[in-house]
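Design a sequence for this backbone.
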């Protein structure tokens, strides 16, 4: 659909922090921004070197951009971390709007005006481009699976993406209109510099990396702003299969940041976070008095308002208190007189074996039981009890094997259909069924065409709740 944007838009500073990133990816980012942007809108592009040690992004980078009047390189001698590097860039920026980008991006055609148009209409808006995928080995460019989705989180404070709600679709005029989103996807967004200043920028107590997207998202929404994802603005992002730099302190640093966010912004809802990470209750998260004072000064709304009015769809997909499973226990297959159960072996392998309660020796029963106890969750996952492993169907072609994979809570290959009242088929979302295969030399499970009367496809849990997924909506 054609969209028309204001001709008189605010000018921008684009801030790109980096630490030991590849010269080619960093320069590619800058070149794409300049090539795909109206030149009169860009005041400056600030590259912030967060104490890199790689020689190829020292003098070669300086030489490459030496004659580019709008490109400025700011270097820190000490490691600042992502949020403080962004704040350092902000102190050098001259534009009316601040745009943060990662250093491994590719700006697409006409990416800039849709973001600035939103901020012209509402200076308290954060505008985020739709983030596409740039393949890290070939630089192939394509949209993310699902494309236009809302940003969200689970109660471990891991980033998630959710379908656009019916309420949000009714608010939008058409499919090209911006989408209200509860959470930023990360470090690609535009914000008016005065609004960013009023919000105190980022929490300066956040170390290195992690938690900053939640800190800013909660702060913007609770303190009177709004956040949009903008379908007509597209920026590709290289999703690498490795991290080119270290995070001093490792996961403790990230956990500490998340605790700071929870303590400042989440009110009583922080308990749902702590119930999943009880070891973090006693972590030293530093002094948060400045952030608490800012929240009081700006008269920011409670987190309950945010969950009710903004992130109202998160509790259905990620309930604060997990509902009891729809079924649980041993999962018997009707094949071979019902004496065989689904069993996890060798890490990720799923097969069938003699049910544990049919063993005569108590030790054998207990040894096998831990591999045969499953639950059918309210999300439709088949999960190994006392683990974080779920049945995953990487290939829905009939005859393909199934496997165990870490539960990702996102549906897809881990979402299945089964009765919550008794024995039934276990269907995948692609319409094939879990099938037991027993022969003289193998016992395994595959997916195959569904056959309602085939005993190799009829599965029975020990216990059923007699509830359905719809009961939990």
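Sequence:
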């Amino acid at each position: 659909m054609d969209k028309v944007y204001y001709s008189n838009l605010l000018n921008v500073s684009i801030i790109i922090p980096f630490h030991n990133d590849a010269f080619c990816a960093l320069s590619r980012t800058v070149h794409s921004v300049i090539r795909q942007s109206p030149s009169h809108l860009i005041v400056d592009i600030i590259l912030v070197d967060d104490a890199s040690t790689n020689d190829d992004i020292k003098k070669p980078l300086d030489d490459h951009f030496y004659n580019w009047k709008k490109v400025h390189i700011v270097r820190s001698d000490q490691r600042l971390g992502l949020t403080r590097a962004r704040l350092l860039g902000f102190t050098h920026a001259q534009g009316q709007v601040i745009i943060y980008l990662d250093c491994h991006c590719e700006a697409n055609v006409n990416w800039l005006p849709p973001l600035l148009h939103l901020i012209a209409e509402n200076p308290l808006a954060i505008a985020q481009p739709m983030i596409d995928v740039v393949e890290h080995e070939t630089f192939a460019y394509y949209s993310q699976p699902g494309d236009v989705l809302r940003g969200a989180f689970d109660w471990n404070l891991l980033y998630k993406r959710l379908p656009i709600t019916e309420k949000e679709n009714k608010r939008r005029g058409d499919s090209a209109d911006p989408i209200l989103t509860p959470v930023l996807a990360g470090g690609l967004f535009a914000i008016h510099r005065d609004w960013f200043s009023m919000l105190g920028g980022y929490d300066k107590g956040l170390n290195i990396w992690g938690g900053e997207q939640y800190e800013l998202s909660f702060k913007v929404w609770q303190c009177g702003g709004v956040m949009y994802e903008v379908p007509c603005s597209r920026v590709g992002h290289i999703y690498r299969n490795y991290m080119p730099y270290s995070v001093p302190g490792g996961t403790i640093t990230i956990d500490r940041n998340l605790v700071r966010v929870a303590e400042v912004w989440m009110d009583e809802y922080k308990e749902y976070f702590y119930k999943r990470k009880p070891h973090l209750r006693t972590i030293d998260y530093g002094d948060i008095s400045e952030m608490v004072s800012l929240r009081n000064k700006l008269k920011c709304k409670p987190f309950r308002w945010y969950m009710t009015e903004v992130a109202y769809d998160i509790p259905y997909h990620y309930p604060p208190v997990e509902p009891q499973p729809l079924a649980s226990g041993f999962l018997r297959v009707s094949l071979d007189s019902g004496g065989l159960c689904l069993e996890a072996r060798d890490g990720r392998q799923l097969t069938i074996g003699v049910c544990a309660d049919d063993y005569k020796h108590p030790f054998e029963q207990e040894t096998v039981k831990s591999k045969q106890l499953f639950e059918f969750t309210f999300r439709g996952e088949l999960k190994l009890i006392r683990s974080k492993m779920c049945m995953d169907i990487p290939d829905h072609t009939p005859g393909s094997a199934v496997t165990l994979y870490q539960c990702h809570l996102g549906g897809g290959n881990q979402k299945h259909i089964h009765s919550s009242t008794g024995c039934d088929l276990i269907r995948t979302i692609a319409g094939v069924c879990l099938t037991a295969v027993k022969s003289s030399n193998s016992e395994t499970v595959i997916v195959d065409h569904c056959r309602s009367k085939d005993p190799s496809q009829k599965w029975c849990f020990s216990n059923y709740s007699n509830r359905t997924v719809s009961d939990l909506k």
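Confidence is low (pLDDT under 50) at residues 469-473.
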